[in-house]
Amino acid sequence: MALQEEVFKKIISHSKEYGFVFPSSEIYDGLSAVYDYGQNGVELKNNLKKYWWDSMVLLHENVVGIDSAIFMHPTIWKASGHVDAFNDPLIDNKDSKKRYRADVLIEDHLAKLDDKIEKEVQKAAKRFGDSFDEQMFRETNPRVLENRQKRDEVHSRFAKALNDNNLEDLRQIILDCEIACPISGTRNWTEVRQFNLMFSTEMGATSDGAMKVYLRPESAQGIFVNFLNVQKTGRMKVPFGIAQIGKAFRNEIVARQFIFRMREFEQMEMQFFVVPGEELKWFEHWKKLRMEWHQALGFGADKYRFHDHDKLAHYANAATDIEFEMPFGFKEVEGIHSRTDFDLSQHEKFSGKKMQYFDPELNKSYTPYVVETSIGVDRMFLSILAGSYCEETLENGETRVMMKFPAELAPVKLAILPLVRKDGLPEKAREIMDDLKFSFSCQYDEKDSIGKRYRRHDAIGTPFCATIDHQTLEDNTVTVRYRDSMEQERVAIDSLQNIIAQKTDLKNLLKKLSV
């Protein structure tokens, strides 16, 4: 685990050094859990959003997009349940004065018990080699069974306490499991309290006439209140989806793990409206499609898993997360939820406006059920950083750090490098740059030795470098160097555009997906 923590520190440091992510307001000592995306980060983030948007809106005739406002009528948040129920259970350690989410402390404890079981299995696998029967070992080994029993007991108590919203029981589990504060090492805990996560502000010219409004804690409600607008103007037939990318805000008290949990973040959400009774079929359909989308990036199927919820939200009848193996364990990057007809029914009740759909095939009106897919853009971005970060020792003993981004998402697709800054090579390189910059993101770079420039572009994840040398002036060819293999090949300048465009085209990823 310590090794993974070191890797995580390196990723955070690398992100700043190479223009991916900066602490926000840094010259004023920063603002906790708020970050800015740098010049390479914003390109990677935009490419990621484009990949998601096209996979939803371009590939599905029955999915369209909107962009709703951040400020919304405050009654919307009453209807959605956020005013009364959007809380985190928090607990303080009296010695360190640090505040934690009680549920996260227990989840971390469960993860440690899982780790103990896996270590026993790995040790036995090494000891017995090819003759090892893993299933038999898991079912009969006393230490595995003891840890499994402990884990199951804690897990069932935890799930019950969450579902009953029993804060005393949550605290009792923390005490019974002897969970200590990571800072002070003590178990001197306060009671567990609920804390509402919404930011509020006032809208209006005077304090007397101002209306209390909220910064939206999720982007989904902007879709629900526009359900009929989109359905009618787009002549949409159920089943159909509405997609949106936008900012959301949560006053996270326990913001941590770099950009994993932030106070200002971005979501990519799609709400899919279906005939009541068909929601679980569509839930399974979107589960499959969304996992495909993640795995198409090529980081390995073993890096992802589904995690079904212990506690269903008040509006859901099924929920699962797609988790990615971050350096700090498997963590949620996307949620898939069957939200029933809760949202539309609530808005109908609170607004007094009918939120039903007339189905010409069934010849009746009904409130559609909803299946939601929701990704945190920043978490997804972090998973791509973690999946791509690579330290490699070369044959000559040197090391290089490289970001093995999928070429389609890389911030810079092609670096154009004149071998030396004389003999007409920079002019020729500029000519190539001016021709190719209309097609994809290129970067001209003439500073330092060619080796240092290759290392620099490895570090920002540029998949291809084209070197312009003296031979270029004679036969109009350049050397293309491939990031991952470091192999080089001579290609004609005329074919350069096709080669790079083909290898970096988003279609390569989209064609891997089922529609």
TrEMBL record:
PROSITE patterns: AA_TRNA_LIGASE_II. Keywords: Aminoacyl-tRNA synthetase, ATP-binding, Cytoplasm, Ligase, Nucleotide-binding, Protein biosynthesis. ATP binds at residues 250-252, 260-265, 332-333, 376-379. GO terms for biological process: diadenosine tetraphosphate biosynthetic process; glycyl-tRNA aminoacylation. Its EC number is 6.1.1.14. Belongs to the class-II aminoacyl-tRNA synthetase family. PANTHER family: DNA POLYMERASE SUBUNIT GAMMA-2, MITOCHONDRIAL, GLYCYL-TRNA SYNTHETASE/DNA POLYMERASE SUBUNIT GAMMA-2. This is Glycine--tRNA ligase. It comes from Fermentimonas caenicola. The gene is glyQS.
